[in-house]
Protein backbone atom coordinates (compact mmCIF):
# COMPACT_ATOMS: atom_id res chain seq x y z
CA UNK A 1 0.00 0.00 0.00
CA UNK A 2 1.27 3.45 -0.86
CA UNK A 3 -0.61 6.69 -1.18
CA UNK A 4 0.50 10.15 -2.14
CA UNK A 5 -1.88 13.08 -2.24
CA UNK A 6 0.30 15.74 -3.89
CA UNK A 7 -0.91 17.22 -7.15
CA UNK A 8 -4.53 16.19 -6.47
CA UNK A 9 -5.62 19.29 -4.56
CA UNK A 10 -8.05 21.83 -5.99
CA UNK A 11 -7.92 25.45 -4.85
CA UNK A 12 -11.14 27.37 -4.28
CA UNK A 13 -11.16 30.61 -6.27
CA UNK A 14 -14.74 31.75 -5.68
CA UNK A 15 -17.93 30.64 -3.97
CA UNK A 16 -21.35 31.58 -5.33
CA UNK A 17 -24.24 31.09 -2.89
CA UNK A 18 -27.31 29.71 -4.72
CA UNK A 19 -29.89 28.76 -2.09
CA UNK A 20 -30.39 28.56 1.65
CA UNK A 21 -33.19 26.31 2.87
CA UNK A 22 -34.50 24.65 6.03
CA UNK A 23 -32.23 21.63 5.76
CA UNK A 24 -29.62 22.25 3.08
CA UNK A 25 -27.95 25.10 1.26
CA UNK A 26 -26.36 25.06 -2.16
CA UNK A 27 -23.30 26.84 -3.50
CA UNK A 28 -21.22 26.64 -6.66
CA UNK A 29 -17.47 26.80 -6.08
CA UNK A 30 -15.04 27.76 -8.81
CA UNK A 31 -11.83 25.78 -8.34
CA UNK A 32 -8.39 25.69 -9.88
CA UNK A 33 -7.52 22.14 -10.91
CA UNK A 34 -4.05 20.57 -10.51
CA UNK A 35 -3.37 21.29 -14.21
CA UNK A 36 -4.05 25.01 -13.72
CA UNK A 37 -7.43 25.02 -15.48
CA UNK A 38 -10.58 26.08 -13.69
CA UNK A 39 -13.81 24.16 -13.16
CA UNK A 40 -16.92 24.42 -11.02
CA UNK A 41 -18.13 22.19 -8.17
CA UNK A 42 -21.76 22.15 -7.04
CA UNK A 43 -21.73 21.67 -3.27
CA UNK A 44 -24.69 20.94 -0.98
CA UNK A 45 -24.07 22.04 2.61
CA UNK A 46 -25.79 19.98 5.31
CA UNK A 47 -25.62 20.28 9.13
CA UNK A 48 -24.69 16.61 9.58
CA UNK A 49 -26.74 13.80 11.06
CA UNK A 50 -26.73 10.88 13.44
CA UNK A 51 -28.04 7.33 13.04
CA UNK A 52 -28.33 4.49 15.54
CA UNK A 53 -28.06 0.73 15.19
CA UNK A 54 -30.24 -0.14 18.19
CA UNK A 55 -30.62 -3.83 19.06
CA UNK A 56 -33.28 -4.95 21.50
CA UNK A 57 -33.67 -8.65 22.37
CA UNK A 58 -31.93 -9.69 19.15
CA UNK A 59 -33.95 -7.39 16.90
CA UNK A 60 -32.93 -4.11 15.34
CA UNK A 61 -35.23 -1.11 15.61
CA UNK A 62 -36.41 0.30 12.27
CA UNK A 63 -38.54 3.29 11.39
CA UNK A 64 -40.87 3.34 8.38
CA UNK A 65 -41.27 6.82 6.94
CA UNK A 66 -42.15 8.58 3.71
CA UNK A 67 -39.21 9.90 1.70
CA UNK A 68 -40.14 12.57 -0.83
CA UNK A 69 -36.83 12.06 -2.67
CA UNK A 70 -37.83 8.40 -3.25
CA UNK A 71 -41.55 9.00 -3.70
CA UNK A 72 -42.30 6.17 -1.27
CA UNK A 73 -41.84 4.94 2.28
CA UNK A 74 -38.66 3.24 3.40
CA UNK A 75 -37.42 1.36 6.46
CA UNK A 76 -34.37 2.97 8.04
CA UNK A 77 -32.51 2.91 11.32
CA UNK A 78 -33.48 5.81 13.60
CA UNK A 79 -31.72 8.96 12.44
CA UNK A 80 -31.94 12.70 12.32
CA UNK A 81 -30.15 15.95 11.71
CA UNK A 82 -27.85 17.62 14.19
CA UNK A 83 -29.34 20.72 15.77
CA UNK A 84 -27.20 23.87 15.87
CA UNK A 85 -24.23 23.30 18.18
CA UNK A 86 -25.47 19.88 19.27
CA UNK A 87 -22.99 17.17 20.20
CA UNK A 88 -23.46 14.11 17.95
CA UNK A 89 -23.66 11.78 20.97
CA UNK A 90 -26.48 13.84 22.49
CA UNK A 91 -28.22 13.95 19.12
CA UNK A 92 -28.01 10.17 18.77
CA UNK A 93 -29.60 9.63 22.20
CA UNK A 94 -32.27 12.25 21.46
CA UNK A 95 -33.22 10.97 18.01
CA UNK A 96 -33.35 7.34 19.16
CA UNK A 97 -35.69 8.16 22.03
CA UNK A 98 -37.88 10.55 19.99
CA UNK A 99 -38.32 8.12 17.10
CA UNK A 100 -38.58 4.79 18.97
CA UNK A 101 -39.49 5.55 22.57
CA UNK A 102 -36.36 3.74 23.81
CA UNK A 103 -33.58 5.49 25.70
CA UNK A 104 -30.06 4.06 25.51
CA UNK A 105 -28.43 3.31 28.90
CA UNK A 106 -25.13 3.08 27.04
CA UNK A 107 -24.24 3.89 23.46
CA UNK A 108 -21.04 4.22 21.46
CA UNK A 109 -19.93 5.58 18.13
CA UNK A 110 -18.94 3.11 15.41
CA UNK A 111 -17.65 5.66 12.92
CA UNK A 112 -18.62 8.69 10.87
CA UNK A 113 -18.95 8.79 7.11
CA UNK A 114 -19.75 11.10 4.21
CA UNK A 115 -22.86 10.06 2.33
CA UNK A 116 -22.16 11.70 -1.07
CA UNK A 117 -18.67 13.22 -1.18
CA UNK A 118 -19.05 14.13 -4.86
CA UNK A 119 -21.60 16.86 -4.17
CA UNK A 120 -22.47 17.09 -0.45
CA UNK A 121 -20.65 17.67 2.85
CA UNK A 122 -23.19 15.66 4.88
CA UNK A 123 -21.56 13.49 7.55
CA UNK A 124 -23.49 10.80 9.40
CA UNK A 125 -22.23 9.73 12.81
CA UNK A 126 -23.26 6.09 13.30
CA UNK A 127 -23.83 4.80 16.84
CA UNK A 128 -24.66 1.39 18.28
CA UNK A 129 -26.50 0.35 21.43
CA UNK A 130 -27.77 -2.93 22.78
CA UNK A 131 -28.71 -1.47 26.16
CA UNK A 132 -32.16 0.17 26.07
CA UNK A 133 -34.79 1.24 28.57
CA UNK A 134 -38.29 2.65 28.13
CA UNK A 135 -38.29 6.34 27.29
CA UNK A 136 -40.60 8.90 25.72
CA UNK A 137 -41.82 8.48 22.11
CA UNK A 138 -41.93 12.01 20.67
CA UNK A 139 -41.49 12.36 16.91
CA UNK A 140 -41.24 15.86 15.43
CA UNK A 141 -44.48 17.59 14.50
CA UNK A 142 -44.01 16.94 10.78
CA UNK A 143 -42.65 13.41 11.24
CA UNK A 144 -44.97 10.45 10.66
CA UNK A 145 -43.43 7.13 11.60
CA UNK A 146 -44.17 3.47 12.05
CA UNK A 147 -41.81 1.45 14.23
CA UNK A 148 -40.90 -2.17 13.63
CA UNK A 149 -38.30 -4.58 15.00
CA UNK A 150 -36.62 -7.20 12.82
CA UNK A 151 -34.16 -10.07 13.14
CA UNK A 152 -30.91 -10.14 11.16
CA UNK A 153 -32.39 -12.60 8.64
CA UNK A 154 -35.46 -10.40 8.23
CA UNK A 155 -33.22 -7.37 7.71
CA UNK A 156 -31.39 -9.13 4.85
CA UNK A 157 -34.75 -10.06 3.30
CA UNK A 158 -35.79 -6.39 3.50
CA UNK A 159 -32.59 -5.39 1.70
CA UNK A 160 -33.22 -8.06 -0.95
CA UNK A 161 -36.77 -6.81 -1.60
CA UNK A 162 -35.82 -3.13 -1.52
CA UNK A 163 -37.76 -2.05 1.61
CA UNK A 164 -34.36 -1.25 3.14
CA UNK A 165 -32.45 0.66 0.47
CA UNK A 166 -30.40 3.43 2.01
CA UNK A 167 -26.69 3.48 2.73
CA UNK A 168 -26.71 3.98 6.51
CA UNK A 169 -29.22 1.18 7.13
CA UNK A 170 -27.49 -1.35 4.86
CA UNK A 171 -24.20 -0.42 6.52
CA UNK A 172 -25.78 -1.02 9.95
CA UNK A 173 -27.08 -4.45 8.90
CA UNK A 174 -23.62 -5.39 7.61
CA UNK A 175 -22.06 -4.20 10.87
CA UNK A 176 -24.58 -6.22 12.87
CA UNK A 177 -23.78 -9.38 10.89
CA UNK A 178 -20.04 -8.79 11.31
CA UNK A 179 -20.70 -8.53 15.05
CA UNK A 180 -22.52 -11.88 14.97
CA UNK A 181 -19.62 -13.48 13.13
CA UNK A 182 -16.61 -11.90 14.82
CA UNK A 183 -17.76 -10.33 18.09
CA UNK A 184 -16.76 -6.94 16.65
CA UNK A 185 -18.73 -4.46 14.59
CA UNK A 186 -15.86 -4.26 12.15
CA UNK A 187 -14.62 -0.75 12.61
CA UNK A 188 -14.27 -0.66 16.36
CA UNK A 189 -10.81 -2.05 16.83
CA UNK A 190 -10.73 -1.29 20.54
CA UNK B 1 -42.07 -8.21 11.95
CA UNK B 2 -44.99 -6.25 10.64
CA UNK B 3 -45.05 -3.12 8.57
CA UNK B 4 -47.89 -0.96 7.35
CA UNK B 5 -47.29 2.10 5.22
CA UNK B 6 -50.74 3.71 5.26
CA UNK B 7 -51.04 7.21 6.62
CA UNK B 8 -47.34 7.93 6.07
CA UNK B 9 -47.57 9.20 2.48
CA UNK B 10 -47.03 12.83 1.55
CA UNK B 11 -48.71 14.28 -1.52
CA UNK B 12 -46.81 16.69 -3.76
CA UNK B 13 -48.76 19.92 -4.24
CA UNK B 14 -46.18 22.02 -6.07
CA UNK B 15 -42.59 21.86 -7.28
CA UNK B 16 -40.40 24.96 -7.49
CA UNK B 17 -37.24 24.59 -9.57
CA UNK B 18 -34.29 26.37 -7.91
CA UNK B 19 -31.14 25.44 -9.80
CA UNK B 20 -29.92 23.25 -12.64
CA UNK B 21 -26.20 22.49 -12.72
CA UNK B 22 -23.68 20.17 -14.35
CA UNK B 23 -24.16 17.37 -11.85
CA UNK B 24 -27.20 18.11 -9.69
CA UNK B 25 -30.36 20.16 -9.74
CA UNK B 26 -32.33 21.47 -6.80
CA UNK B 27 -36.07 21.87 -6.30
CA UNK B 28 -38.33 22.68 -3.38
CA UNK B 29 -41.49 20.57 -3.22
CA UNK B 30 -44.54 21.64 -1.28
CA UNK B 31 -46.20 18.56 0.19
CA UNK B 32 -49.39 17.77 2.07
CA UNK B 33 -48.57 15.80 5.22
CA UNK B 34 -50.65 12.86 6.54
CA UNK B 35 -52.28 15.26 9.04
CA UNK B 36 -53.46 17.58 6.24
CA UNK B 37 -50.93 20.34 6.95
CA UNK B 38 -48.42 21.43 4.33
CA UNK B 39 -44.65 21.52 4.50
CA UNK B 40 -41.71 21.88 2.13
CA UNK B 41 -39.05 19.37 1.10
CA UNK B 42 -35.73 20.42 -0.41
CA UNK B 43 -34.80 17.81 -2.99
CA UNK B 44 -31.50 17.40 -4.84
CA UNK B 45 -31.90 15.54 -8.14
CA UNK B 46 -28.92 13.47 -9.27
CA UNK B 47 -28.48 11.22 -12.35
CA UNK B 48 -27.39 8.22 -10.25
CA UNK B 49 -23.99 6.60 -10.03
CA UNK B 50 -22.11 3.32 -10.05
CA UNK B 51 -19.33 2.03 -7.80
CA UNK B 52 -17.21 -1.11 -8.01
CA UNK B 53 -15.64 -3.34 -5.38
CA UNK B 54 -12.80 -4.65 -7.55
CA UNK B 55 -10.49 -7.28 -6.01
CA UNK B 56 -7.20 -8.18 -7.70
CA UNK B 57 -4.89 -10.78 -6.16
CA UNK B 58 -6.47 -10.29 -2.73
CA UNK B 59 -6.31 -6.47 -2.80
CA UNK B 60 -9.11 -4.00 -3.44
CA UNK B 61 -8.57 -1.20 -5.92
CA UNK B 62 -8.89 2.30 -4.46
CA UNK B 63 -8.73 5.72 -6.03
CA UNK B 64 -7.34 8.76 -4.20
CA UNK B 65 -8.98 12.00 -5.33
CA UNK B 66 -9.70 15.48 -4.09
CA UNK B 67 -13.23 16.10 -2.82
CA UNK B 68 -14.20 19.75 -2.71
CA UNK B 69 -17.12 18.95 -0.37
CA UNK B 70 -14.59 17.57 2.17
CA UNK B 71 -11.80 20.04 1.41
CA UNK B 72 -9.30 17.17 1.17
CA UNK B 73 -8.45 13.99 -0.70
CA UNK B 74 -10.09 10.69 0.08
CA UNK B 75 -9.64 7.04 -0.86
CA UNK B 76 -12.72 5.56 -2.48
CA UNK B 77 -13.65 2.59 -4.60
CA UNK B 78 -13.83 3.44 -8.32
CA UNK B 79 -17.11 5.21 -9.05
CA UNK B 80 -18.79 7.70 -11.31
CA UNK B 81 -22.03 9.19 -12.51
CA UNK B 82 -24.34 7.55 -15.00
CA UNK B 83 -24.30 9.21 -18.40
CA UNK B 84 -27.65 10.03 -20.01
CA UNK B 85 -29.46 6.80 -20.88
CA UNK B 86 -26.52 4.64 -19.82
CA UNK B 87 -27.12 1.18 -18.39
CA UNK B 88 -25.61 0.91 -14.89
CA UNK B 89 -23.74 -2.28 -15.79
CA UNK B 90 -22.08 -0.57 -18.76
CA UNK B 91 -21.28 2.44 -16.57
CA UNK B 92 -19.66 0.22 -13.93
CA UNK B 93 -17.40 -1.45 -16.52
CA UNK B 94 -16.56 1.94 -18.08
CA UNK B 95 -15.77 3.74 -14.82
CA UNK B 96 -13.66 0.88 -13.48
CA UNK B 97 -11.54 0.77 -16.64
CA UNK B 98 -11.23 4.56 -16.97
CA UNK B 99 -10.20 5.06 -13.34
CA UNK B 100 -8.00 1.99 -12.75
CA UNK B 101 -6.92 0.68 -16.16
CA UNK B 102 -8.45 -2.73 -15.40
CA UNK B 103 -11.33 -4.17 -17.41
CA UNK B 104 -13.65 -6.69 -15.71
CA UNK B 105 -14.01 -10.01 -17.53
CA UNK B 106 -17.06 -10.64 -15.35
CA UNK B 107 -18.90 -8.37 -12.94
CA UNK B 108 -22.15 -8.50 -11.00
CA UNK B 109 -24.39 -6.17 -9.08
CA UNK B 110 -24.53 -6.52 -5.31
CA UNK B 111 -27.34 -4.04 -4.71
CA UNK B 112 -28.39 -0.43 -5.21
CA UNK B 113 -28.88 2.13 -2.46
CA UNK B 114 -29.88 5.72 -1.81
CA UNK B 115 -27.08 7.77 -0.32
CA UNK B 116 -29.11 10.52 1.40
CA UNK B 117 -32.85 9.81 1.20
CA UNK B 118 -33.67 12.82 3.38
CA UNK B 119 -32.71 15.33 0.69
CA UNK B 120 -31.41 13.60 -2.46
CA UNK B 121 -32.61 11.03 -5.00
CA UNK B 122 -29.08 9.80 -5.78
CA UNK B 123 -28.89 6.02 -6.19
CA UNK B 124 -25.57 4.17 -6.31
CA UNK B 125 -25.47 0.80 -8.01
CA UNK B 126 -22.72 -1.23 -6.34
CA UNK B 127 -20.95 -3.94 -8.36
CA UNK B 128 -18.28 -6.50 -7.51
CA UNK B 129 -15.63 -8.19 -9.63
CA UNK B 130 -12.66 -10.43 -8.88
CA UNK B 131 -11.94 -11.15 -12.56
CA UNK B 132 -9.85 -8.38 -14.14
CA UNK B 133 -7.68 -7.98 -17.22
CA UNK B 134 -5.46 -5.12 -18.41
CA UNK B 135 -7.47 -2.32 -20.02
CA UNK B 136 -7.06 1.36 -20.83
CA UNK B 137 -6.49 3.92 -18.05
CA UNK B 138 -8.39 7.04 -19.16
CA UNK B 139 -9.66 9.35 -16.40
CA UNK B 140 -11.87 12.29 -17.38
CA UNK B 141 -10.14 15.51 -18.37
CA UNK B 142 -10.92 17.18 -15.03
CA UNK B 143 -10.27 14.05 -12.93
CA UNK B 144 -6.94 13.76 -11.10
CA UNK B 145 -6.43 10.37 -9.48
CA UNK B 146 -3.91 8.19 -7.72
CA UNK B 147 -4.50 4.46 -7.70
CA UNK B 148 -3.61 2.16 -4.84
CA UNK B 149 -4.38 -1.45 -3.90
CA UNK B 150 -4.92 -2.55 -0.29
CA UNK B 151 -5.53 -5.72 1.68
CA UNK B 152 -8.61 -6.15 3.86
CA UNK B 153 -6.64 -5.37 7.03
CA UNK B 154 -5.18 -2.24 5.41
CA UNK B 155 -8.68 -1.17 4.36
CA UNK B 156 -9.90 -1.38 7.97
CA UNK B 157 -6.89 0.65 9.10
CA UNK B 158 -7.75 3.30 6.49
CA UNK B 159 -11.31 3.45 7.86
CA UNK B 160 -9.96 3.76 11.40
CA UNK B 161 -7.69 6.68 10.47
CA UNK B 162 -10.28 8.42 8.28
CA UNK B 163 -8.58 8.12 4.89
CA UNK B 164 -11.57 5.98 3.87
CA UNK B 165 -14.64 7.85 5.08
CA UNK B 166 -17.46 7.59 2.59
CA UNK B 167 -20.49 5.35 2.70
CA UNK B 168 -20.02 3.34 -0.49
CA UNK B 169 -16.39 2.48 0.29
CA UNK B 170 -17.03 1.46 3.90
CA UNK B 171 -19.98 -0.61 2.67
CA UNK B 172 -17.70 -2.31 0.14
CA UNK B 173 -15.10 -3.13 2.81
CA UNK B 174 -17.82 -4.61 5.03
CA UNK B 175 -19.13 -6.66 2.10
CA UNK B 176 -15.62 -7.91 1.34
CA UNK B 177 -15.11 -9.00 4.95
CA UNK B 178 -18.51 -10.75 4.97
CA UNK B 179 -17.37 -12.56 1.81
CA UNK B 180 -14.19 -13.68 3.59
CA UNK B 181 -16.21 -14.95 6.55
CA UNK B 182 -19.23 -16.49 4.85
CA UNK B 183 -18.42 -16.98 1.16
CA UNK B 184 -21.21 -14.51 0.34
CA UNK B 185 -21.16 -10.75 0.01
CA UNK B 186 -24.15 -10.54 2.30
CA UNK B 187 -26.84 -9.27 0.04
CA UNK B 188 -26.48 -11.68 -2.85
CA UNK B 189 -28.65 -14.54 -1.71
CA UNK B 190 -28.32 -16.43 -5.00
Automatic annotation (TrEMBL), chains A, B:
Keyword Transcription regulation: no
Keyword set, alphabetical order: Hydrolase
Root EC class: hydrolase
CDD domains linked: NUDIX_ADPRase_Nudt5_UGPPase_Nudt14 (cd03424)
Transmembrane segments: none
Limits of the Nudix hydrolase domain: 44-172
Cofactor section: Mg(2+)
Highest taxon, organism lineage: Bacteria
InterPro entries: NUDIX_hydrolase-like_dom_sf, NUDIX_hydrolase_CS, NUDIX_hydrolase_dom
GO molecular function: ADP-ribose diphosphatase activity
Pfam family for this entry, one: NUDIX
EC number(s) from the headed UniProt entry: 3.6.1.13
Name this protein carries in UniProt: ADP-ribose pyrophosphatase
Organism whose genome encodes this protein: Paenibacillus sediminis
Amino acid sequence: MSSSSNKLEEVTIATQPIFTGKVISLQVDTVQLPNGKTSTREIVKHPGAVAVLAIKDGRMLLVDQYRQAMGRTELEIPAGKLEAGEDPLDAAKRELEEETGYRPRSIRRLHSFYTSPGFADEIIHLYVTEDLEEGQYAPDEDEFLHNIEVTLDEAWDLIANGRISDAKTIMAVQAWQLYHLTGKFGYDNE
